[in-house]
Amino acid sequence: xxxxxxxxxxxxxxxxxxxxxxxxxxxxxxxxxxxxxxxxxxxxxxxxxxxxxxxxxxxxxxxxxxxxxxxxxxxxxxxxxxxxxxxxxxxxxxxxxxxxxxxxxxxxxxxxxxxxxxxxxxxxxxxxxxxxxxxxxxxxxxxxxxxxxxxxxxxxxxxxxxxxxxxxxxxxxxxxxxxxxxxxxxxxxxxxxxxxxxxxxxxxxxxxxxxxxxxxxxxxxxxxxxxxxxxxxxxxxxxxxxxxxxxxxxxxxxxxxxxxxxxxxxx
Length: 267
Fold this sequence. Notes:
This protein is mostly helical. The protein has one domain. It has ten helices and two strands. It has a two-stranded antiparallel ribbon with strand order 1-2. The protein is globular, with a radius of gyration of 18 Å.
């Protein structure tokens, strides 16, 4: 086993820790790890990320179920359009993207590069939401949960599209939506986000079962990540996710910029 491969599997712990501590960021780490450390192609990595993040989130949601941190009605309202969107994207849109998207003079934009660049842009946008300090947000655990059905459904469709294209679970999109649109307290938003991520990612992965899959890599990486999410969930009782999120955001921003520069230099 080469050093990069060892680092890749070891990094799975970080992916699980991220999901356990802040309820998101798992796929933002997973895709770069698969591409740069484990040598998986960009398109295949987005498919593998769906399975890894979905399975890890499913295990991570167990502790939240026990604590009553999952609001099932909200999960269904948000999750159904997201699941439909991600499955259709993986099954129809991704296969329809041509292998060579753009070719002019010395610049060739291939499918793998386009997906990786789009993912990097998502990373940069996600980092902003993590770094930005939110002012004037006061949680009320006893407040009545309200629903804006059209907006929640639309957000589910958008998150599903992003998930389908780049394999990102979308926790950084889901959690703000649940807090702002469904008025969920942060703890319930994190728990509900994990069950939504698990369902739409795993069901979305079904659209990729026709491809050749390295199950040894998938299951090994997932098992290590699951250990990480349980460690993260345990640490979340002692460490504030709100304090860790900005630091993680800066890391994501640096990674996103690196992927953009590295991809363009190789073109």
